[in-house]
Amino acid sequence: MNAIIMGLYEIEEQAGKLMEEAAARREELLEENRKKMEDSALELEQEMEGRLSILKTQLKEQTEEEIRQLVEKNQGQVALLNETYGEHLEEVAQKIVGKITEV
Q1: Sign of dihedral through CA atoms 64, 69, 74, 75?
Q2: pTM of the model
Q3: Among candidates 39, 8, 79, which has minimal Cα distance to 31?
Q4: Confidence band, pLDDT 50/70/90 cuts, at residue 2
């Protein structure tokens, strides 16, 4: 009977050790999982920063191109106005003088 009780104590002791080892292993796995999640989050953040940088560069280039095109268009319109003004300056001046003298 004593041998049975001693055998049960040994089994209980071994079960307790197994449970402790399982708990320790669980903690290791949880820590490993937490570390992997942090690494993944950091990697994702770096990738997003890279993509954002590329998008910012593309947007800047696109904006600069649109501004350049607007400047060219406006310069063309100013040149056309100057040309029109130069061609019709005398007519416009005569009309203005005519309106002033009518009063």
Answers
A1: positive
A2: 0.55
A3: 39
A4: confident
Residue 97 token pair: 């003088």
62 or 6, greater pLDDT = 62
Cα 54 from Cα 16, distance rounded (Å): 57
State the Cα–Cα distance between residues 35 and 39, nearest whole angstrom: 6
72/68 Cα distance (integer angstroms) = 6
* Sign of torsion over alpha carbons 73, 75, 78, 84: negative
Within 13 Å and on the Cβ side, how many CA atoms surround 65? 6
At a CB cut-off of 8 Å and minimum separation 6, what does 85 contact?
92
